[in-house]
Design goal:
Number of strands: 18
Strand order of the largest sheet: 4-10-11-3-12-14
Helix content: 40-55%
Number of helices: 20
Number of domains: 3
Shape: elongated
Mean pLDDT: 87
Low-confidence stretches: 279-284
CATH class of the largest domain: Alpha Beta
Distance between the termini: 54 Å
CATH architecture of the largest domain: 3-Layer(aba) Sandwich
Strand content: 15-25%
Largest sheet: 6 strands, mixed
Structural class: alpha/beta
Oligomer: single chain
């Protein structure tokens, strides 16, 4: 019964997975997109069971008699009040639904022997504990007449209107999610639309909410082919908390675009996830994603950032091949445009013997090709040799002396080709002898540290003066990545 797409009057969502994350900036039309789908799908109730959770969730998580009356007298009352961005008494209705979820769970408990006969399973362990995993300072417990909030430290009773807005949001959202799963109809396709569930939630709470969705999906796995949860969000922490699951797909909603295609989470996103998962720290430090070909490059740029004392602000994102590099670039551009107002990111590729060919930029992603074969070739530039307390002439003399003393070494021939080269093998692969170069110079530092220290020590005047390291890296790259010009 797996459904591949959901369509409204204008909105179209294709490539459905169990959890579908729709990323987009403010004003991109994410809320309108979800409400259009909800209004259309709701008319096909023989095929679909659909629930929509609006983005502004007002009130306190406390049962209200008026809300109960409205819900009892009009089956469409709750839906109509949530068909707009701001839903009054949202949390009061969530409290009512949570009590209904308790009743539904207890009925299922009585009719399901494998649950009933398991002493470790009950409403508190299967439901309340999941809600409490979202909370840090308070806990929700079963009181005599209703659910109660108590402080974890002293156990004191706390009124619903006294808990923080973030904790109140977390409890209400958890109640909505639990109610949806406990009311799944096996004979229909079940859809939960969560509109900006990250509102008012700390990044850590956003991540925990994502984990709750995965936990409930696992519990109801037998209905997986009949469940689709669609989340419109800005929350990269939520994305990253669940990105490793095969049940998760991601799409981007841009301005004036009413068709969103979901794509399964790829290895590329998993590599980039740490960058996108920490928007607060990245905003404060002004870091930019830096897509690199491998771990060697990562170590070089991490050392460069440390040496620069905060001048170089990059967050390495690793790929493993040229094809993966291109895929990661495309993925990052889509996410950057969907999340940030004025994004900037960088991508650096090896020269691989290609001379004089520049890469075109992709929107906010500035792309560069090294003006040498690979990053280790920079080891032979004058600034890097100075880090090793030597010069090119001194290196040549030391290399010839070393070769005479180690005539049986596997890489003497390559070392001698380097010594006699006119351009210090700028566009030739030297991977086999990169650490040997350090040893010949009497340097005990790893070659990545040497190159990173030299890059981190660059000054703006090096862009206009003669500097071999700038030449090997490329002046545009140094100006943009190192000095963020």
């Amino acid at each position: 019964m797996q459904v591949q797409e959901l369509a409204g009057q204008t909105a179209h969502l294709s490539g459905l997975n169990n959890i579908n994350i729709i990323l987009g900036r403010n004003g991109a039309g994410k809320s309108r997109f979800l409400r259009d789908i909800e209004a259309t799908i709701n008319q096909r109730r023989e095929e679909f069971y659909i629930r929509y959770v609006s983005p502004e969730r007002a009130g306190s998580f406390k049962r209200d008699g008026n809300v109960l009356t409205n819900m009892s007298n009009n089956s469409e009352w709750l839906r109509s009040t949530r068909a707009v961005n701001q839903a009054n008494n949202f949390k009061a209705a969530s409290a009512m639904l949570f009590r209904e979820a308790e009743t539904l769970y207890l009925r299922r408990l009585s009719s399901t022997p494998e649950i009933r006969m398991n002493p470790s399973r009950n409403f508190e362990t299967d439901r309340l504990s999941k809600v409490n995993q979202l909370l840090s300072n308070i806990t929700i417990v079963m009181g005599n007449a209703d659910f109660e909030f108590r402080s974890i430290a002293e156990g004191e009773l706390i009124e619903p209107h006294e808990i923080s807005s973030g904790e109140s949001e977390a409890v209400a959202l958890a109640a909505e999610i639990l109610y949806f799963f406990d009311t799944i109809d096996p004979n229909r396709f079940n859809v939960l639309l969560l509109d900006e569930p990250d509102v008012h939630l700390h990044p850590d709470l956003q991540g925990r909410l994502g984990k709750l969705l995965l936990a409930m999906l696992e519990e109801f796995g037998r209905y997986a082919d009949r469940i689709a949860i669609c989340i419109a969000t800005h929350s990269t922490p939520m994305v990253c908390s669940i990105a490793a699951s095969e049940s998760v797909s991601i799409g981007t909603k841009n301005f004036a675009v009413d068709a969103v295609t979901m794509q399964p989470v790829s290895a590329d996103l998993c590599k980039a996830a740490p960058f996108f998962g920490h928007p607060l720290s990245l905003s404060l430090s002004d870091d930019a994603a830096l897509i690199l070909e491998g771990e060697d490059d990562q170590r070089v740029w991490q050392q460069a950032a440390r040496t620069s004392n905060g001048k170089i602000k990059v967050f390495p994102v690793l790929t493993g091949s040229v094809d993966q590099h291109s895929q990661t670039e495309t993925m990052c551009v889509a996410l950057l445009n969907a999340i940030y107002e004025h994004p900037v990111a960088f991508s650096i590729r090896d020269g691989d013997g290609i001379v004089g060919q520049k890469l075109g930029h992709l929107g906010p992603l500035k792309r560069y090709r090294l003006d040498c074969y690979a990053i280790e070739n920079a080891l032979l530039t004058d600034p890097c040799l100075r880090v090793m307390n030597t010069s090119w002439g001194e290196f040549v003399a030391a290399a010839e002396k070393w070769a005479n003393a180690n005539k049986g070494h596997d890489y003497i021939a390559e070392l001698m080709v380097l010594v006699h080269s006119a351009d210090r093998l700028r566009h030739t692969k030297i991977k086999n002898i990169r650490q040997l170069i350090c040893a010949v110079c009497g340097c005990t530092k790893p070659w990545e540290v040497v190159v990173g220290k030299a890059i981190g020590a660059l000054k703006t005047e090096d862009l206009v003066s003669s500097n071999m390291l700038v030449d090997f890296l490329g002046a545009d790259l140094v100006g943009d990545v190192v000095f963020r010009s």
